[in-house]
Amino acid sequence: MSAVASPPGFAVSPGEGNLPRLTLAAPDGATAEVYLYGAHVASWIPSGDEERLFLSRASAFRAGAPIRGGVPLIFPQFGLTGPLPLHGLIRLMTWEFAGAHTTGDAAVASFRVADNEASRRLWPHAFLAEVMITIGGRRLTLALDVSNAGAEVFSFTAGFHTYFAISNLDATRVEGLMGAHYRDNVAGGEADQTLPVVEFPGEVNRIYLDAPAELRLVEADRTTLIRSTGFPDAVVWNPGAARIATMVDLEPNDYRRFVCVEAVCIGRPVTLAPGQHWQGTQTMLA
Ligand code: TA6
């Protein structure tokens, strides 16, 4: 790995696959681990708590493949909604560690990445993406900033594809979506959420358009609040047993170990004129 300067108290060291990984520790004991590859949060342990993010034991940790689990960053294309690789470019780019500090009980780390020759071959736009990760107490906040650094307008979709660790899928549900309209990527078509909870009896893959800004991931013995700003839509995803059997970087039973609740903008792509910038955030409260 290449040497990366890190301020005192914030160690960048080789992680899985020898990829540089920042360990972020807040004064109150909350920790997070962030790979520079993808600015990918791979672990979050709130103060006095246990691991809250799922990370696949079968994940690749090498350039060219996304890390499976944690929080993949999606930009400038969600899924296969356009011609780019699945979920876009920035989860496959190595980011610059832009600094870290503590403030009160929180620790904050920033990362940035700009377009390069390879990204421009696929998406011919100049951009700067910055991510700020804040932990402390029971909270993880992720903020993604995108600036148009070029001379032409561009549009994009984006998101935080957050994998929450769960211990009992049968007792896990997502609340807060009652009445919301969604695209159903399993059954096809669109529908309205007519039940107060989303449960996981099989594969679930839904894009909720104009979703509420606060959702709850409810488990048998704990609830995680999930708030977003700047991302009007939300994805709820669990691959179920049959789909996961086709995925090389997950173990067969992993579908019982995570649920993704994603803060996304898909329905109305964001358009930025030269010099303009946009921000979206997702906050998890354990
Ligand atoms: O957000 C759900 C989804 O778009 C699913 O369709 C599923 O394929 C998932 O993301 C994971 O995508 P990935 O490219 O990481 O395999």
Task: Provide the fold topology.
Blueprint (H helix, E strand, L loop, with lengths): L10 E4 L5 E6 L5 E5 L4 E6 L27 E2 L21 E8 L2 E9 L2 H6 L4 E10 L2 E10 L5 E7 L2 E3 L7 E3 L5 E4 L5 E3 L4 E2 L5 E6 L4 E5 L4 E7 L3 E6 L1 H5 L13 E15 L4 E9 L1
Antiparallel strand pairs: 1-2, 2-3, 3-4, 5-10, 6-7, 7-8, 8-9, 9-21, 10-20, 11-20, 12-15, 12-17, 13-14, 13-16, 16-19, 17-18, 18-21, 19-20
Bound molecules: 6-O-phosphono-beta-D-tagatofuranose.
6-O-phosphono-beta-D-tagatofuranose binds next to strand 19 and strand 20.
Properties at a glance:
single chain, 286 residues, mainly beta, 9-stranded antiparallel beta sheet, 8-stranded antiparallel beta sheet, 2 helices, 4% helix, 45% strand, globular, disordered N terminus, binds 6-O-phosphono-beta-D-tagatofuranose
Q: Could you characterize what this model shows?
A:
The chain has two helices and 21 strands. It has 286 residues and is mainly beta. The strands form three sheets. Strands 6-7-8-9-21-18-17-12-15 form a nine-stranded antiparallel β-sheet, with no helix packed on it. Strands 5, 10, 11, 13, 14, 16, 19 and 20 form an eight-stranded antiparallel β-sheet that branches. The protein has a four-stranded antiparallel β-sheet with strand order 1-2-3-4, with no helix packed on it. A hairpin with a 5-residue loop joins β2 and β3.
- Structure class: mainly beta
Order of helices and strands: EEEEEEEHEEEEEEEEEEEEHEE
For the largest sheet, list the strands in their spatial order. Answer: 6-7-8-9-21-18-17-12-15
Helical stretch tally:
2
Report the C-alpha radius of gyration, rounded.
18 Å
Termini, distance in Å? 33 Å
Named once each, the bound ligands are:
6-O-phosphono-beta-D-tagatofuranose
Q: What are the segments in which pLDDT stays under 50 over at least 5 consecutive residues?
A: 1-5
What fraction of the residues are assigned to beta strands by DSSP?
Answer: over 45%
Average per-residue pLDDT, rounded, comes to 96
> Which term fits the overall shape?
globular
- Strands, total number: 21
Share of helical residues: under 10%
Oligomeric state of the chains? single chain
